[in-house]
Every structure is written in C-alpha cells, then in structure tokens.
Amino acid sequence: MGRPPCCDKEGIKKGPWTPEEDILLVSYIQEHGPGNWKAIPSKTGLLRCSKSCRLRWTNYLRPGIKRGNFTNQEENMIIHLQALLGNRWAAIASYLPQRTDNDIKNYWNTYLKKRLSKKLEEEKKDGSCLANNNNDFSSQKVVMPRGQWERRLQTDINMAKKALTHALSPQNNNNNNNNNNNNIESLSCSSSSNSNSNSCSSNNNNKATQSLSYASNADNIARLLKGWMKKNNNNDTASSKEGILGTKVFGNEECLESSNNTTSSLEFSHSIYSQQEESKTEEIGQVLMPFHLLEKWLLDETNIEKFI
DNA sequence: AAGATGGACAACCGCCGAGGT
DNA sequence: CACCTCGGCGGTTGTCCATCT
C-alpha cells in the first residue's frame, strides 16, 4: 500500500488544460515565480493538483521551450546520450536545455527507437555485423558473457564518441535538416549499404504540420511571458534556481529568441552550461558531469583504453 | 465516405529521494 | 530515528489527428 496519489482528491480536474487555466497559472508564476507548487492550486483557484501545475509549467508553459522538429544535431545528441546514459531523460534533457525531458522521451519512444530498431532489423536480415545485438535499445537486459559485455560497452562508447565528434563538428550545423537518416547510419554498422530509408521524411513533415498548430497555442503563452521575462531579467532569482542540471533553463530571454532562429542547440547548451557550471559543479556529481568534461571524456582516446 | 490503424504528444501515475519536523 | 511532505523522474496511458483501406 503506497501513499495515495495526490490527485485522488475529489474536485481535482484532470485532462487537457484550457487556455484559461494556463493564463491563471502563468499569471501566478509571473507574480511569484515558479516553486511552492503545493500552494498554487489554492492560491490561483485552479482545480488542479500541484503536480499537474508543475508539469504543465515545466513541459509546456515555461519560457524558452523549443517545440517542433528536432534538428539533426539534437537527434544525434539524444541518440548517443541515450546510449551513454540510458533512459535518464532528465539527464539527457539537461544537455538540450530548450527541450523538455517529456519531449525527448516522447520523441525517443515514438520515433527514434522505432527507426533504430527498423534499421537494425534491416541489417540483421542482411546478415551484417549487428547480428548479436538486441534491437531494443532501451531494454538491453540480455545476459551475455563478460568479455562480450565489455566489447559491447566498448562499441557503445566508440559509437557515442564518433557521433559526438560528428555532432560537434562546425560543418554539421549547416546540414541539420537534410540528412536525418545519417544519425541512424552512424549508429548502425558502417558496412551497411541499404540505407535508402525514406520513411522519416514523411514523418517529419507530419510533425512539422502538427507542431505548427500546437506552437501557435504555445506561442501565445510565450508572448504573454515575454514582457515578464524582460521585466525580470535583471533580478532573476528563478533562473538561478531552475537553471541547474537536471532541471531546465528558466528566465533567460535568449531562450525565447533562440527558439525562432538557427542558433545551434549545442552552442546554446554550451553557453548555458558555462553559466551554470561554475556554481553548480558540486550538483553534477557522479552521474552528470559538466558538458565539457563529458565531451572531453568521449573524445579522449586514452580514456577508452583505461576504461577497458 | 466511413471505419480502422498508427503516430504524436500531453498528461497521469507511482515510485523515490531530499529535507523538514 | 521515524515519519511526513514535496518535488522530480521515468513509465505508461489517453486522446487527437492524419493516413490508409
């Protein structure tokens, strides 16, 4: 018997949020800043539980959230951070400050995982080098001998390293939207030749139209918030609270602007990271190292040998 | 044209850890 | 030290919408 869910109380509304509810929540946060979620329903009159309010804010209303198509670079990072960190979406999201963990998780579960599985399936049929791999990247619970496990681990590290190099290369920033399939190829066996999958292009178009209608709604909230962000830019206590690893960047005008321009997400995450790093290194701990360290570690050949 | 199917995504649920009492 | 509350996280579900048959 666990603790009863906080949303079991009577009179608590569930389901999609209405614009009116959004405005109530945003107005309150405009005035008081995020946090103290427990108090929000009673203070605002919202018939929602505190968790629902927090989730709505962090995944949807929070300024600086980038919606819509994932760039090639973002895809690269997600694929390889997932390979490194597993399904730790909050950790992965901390390297993509404009994306929410929920967004990344959804993108992985509904799109990337299937693409990867499909790709590997094709290669398996061709009798290529990944014949021994488990197709499901997120549930690799196959028992294997230690030597094999080590080789697999090394392969994963090498793949991650290779892809990160690719993702970090400046020229890659210019090719964001025309070679999405390459991500998969970089992950899968390099000897594979049947890489003419075009399934993703239709999906991306689909996504684009969907996100348009969705964004128009979110943009209204974003515009509402924009004035507030300007107002609060100088004494932004919330940003120091939220802009840490494991949570997301908040209270940064740059976030709002960057969702509409072509600034690379990596560049952005780097800048955010450098701001956060000095004050938050102790919070990063053993699981999440600063981006530059991760990058360095991944790119450093000698670490691989040491590790193995 | 209508029903079936599948993809995308917002939201919920339950567990866990941190911090306060 | 035990208990409680709160916030965060990952897994899962529900719903909407587009496409297919």
UniProtKB/TrEMBL annotation:
Organism phylogeny: Eukaryota, Viridiplantae, Streptophyta, Embryophyta, Tracheophyta
InterPro entries the UniProt entry points to: Homeodomain-like_sf, Myb_dom, Myb_TF_plants, SANT/Myb
Record GO terms (molecular function): DNA binding
Domain spans labelled Myb-like: 9-61, 62-112
GO CC term, one of those recorded: nucleus
Protein source organism: Arachis duranensis (Wild peanut)
HTH myb-type domain residues: 9-65, 66-116
One Pfam family recorded for the sequence: Myb_DNA-binding
CDD domains: SANT
Compositionally biased spans, kind Polar residues: 130-141
Top-level taxon in the UniProt lineage: Eukaryota
SUPFAM superfamilies referenced in this protein's UniProt entry, alphabetically: Homeodomain-like
Keywords (A to Z) from UniProt: DNA-binding, Nucleus, Repeat
Residue numbers spanned by region Disordered: 125-145, 168-204
Stated name of the protein: Transcription factor MYB30
Location (main, coarse): nucleus
Compositional bias per record (Low complexity), positions renumbered to this chain: 172-204
UniProt-annotated location(s): Nucleus
Gene Ontology process terms (BP): response to auxin
